Amino acid sequence: MYLARLLLSPPSCRSREHLRQAVAGKTILITGASFGIGRAAALLLAEAGAEVLLLARSGDQLAELADTIRANGGQASAYTLDLSKPAEFAPVAAQIQAAHPQIHIIISNAGKSIRRPVLQSSEKQDLERLLAVNFSGPAALLLALLPRMLAQGGGQIVNVSSVSAGPPPLPRWAAYQGSKAGFDLWFRSLGPSCGAGACACAACICRWCVPA
Ligand SMILES: NC(=O)c1ccc[n+]([C@@H]2O[C@H](COP(=O)([O-])OP(=O)(O)OC[C@H]3O[C@@H](n4cnc5c(N)ncnc54)[C@H](OP(=O)(O)O)[C@@H]3O)[C@@H](O)[C@H]2O)c1
Strand 199-206 vs strand 155-162: parallel, antiparallel, or unpaired? Predict the structure, then answer.
């Protein structure tokens, strides 16, 4: 257990000072910032000196988080966006880009999971719903934000992926695994598609996370 923690999460990766050196002064957009991993990441990054742009559907949660960050001396702005409604993306992206001259890092974190036997999933439209939030929505949002990032010399994009985005296939998780795996592969081709060195795309593979 100790060895696994040391290899998967070496002390240098947990150093607040290293984080500060990497992100202080940068503008970082985080999707799914209202709860869970996204909220915890926003707090950590803001504490390390980054300006954080918080996206999700729950406007009240985002406003409360932005207030907390500002009260602690950080910089944060909240934007409500539903990843299953691509018609919203262009106006929200334009609003964000008008307010922030440069986005250095995008953390594509928002996601949803449904655990259900596959033969019961079609009446609930599980696949359609998960593809929208885990694949087509995040992909379309990145495509809306990428042109300016590339025009400004590039940036970094992080995909909060899952250990379930690959084999082994698990019963009851077909729609989740399929949607996460699809986005994972699309995302891996994004860096090379943008041109050598233009965008650094990295996947962060989560296993079981319960943010404090
Ligand atoms: N927790 C784990 O053990 C674990 C393991 C592997 C991978 N992951 C991945 O890690 C990421 C975060 O997971 P989490 O556990 O922190 O999830 P969570 O606590 O359920 O939070 C999910 C976030 O995504 C947002 N979201 C959901 N549907 C959305 C939509 N239609 N439009 C915009 N935002 C939406 C939610 O905000 P609103 O509801 O306010 O919109 C929320 O902020 C996900 O991509 C997940 O697949 C998590």
Answer: parallel
- Compute φ and ψ for 63, nearest 5 degrees: -65, -40
Domain boundaries defined on the chain: 24-206
pLDDT tens readout for residues 86-123: 999 999 999 999 999 999 999 999 999 999 999 999 98
Catalytic-labelled residue, pool 89, 176, 183, 187 = 176
From residue 208, alpha-carbon distances to 13, 161, 163, 200, 211 in Å are: 18, 11, 9, 25, 10
- 9 DSSP 8-state letter: S
Looking from the CA of residue 209, the nearest atom of ligand 1 is: 3
Report pLDDT digits (tens) over 37-64.
999 999 999 999 999 999 999 999 999 9
CATH 3.40.30.10 for domain 24-206, yes or no, is: no
SS3 84: coil
Rounded to the nearest 5 degrees, what angle is found at the Cα of 138, between the Cα atoms of 136 and 139?
Answer: 60
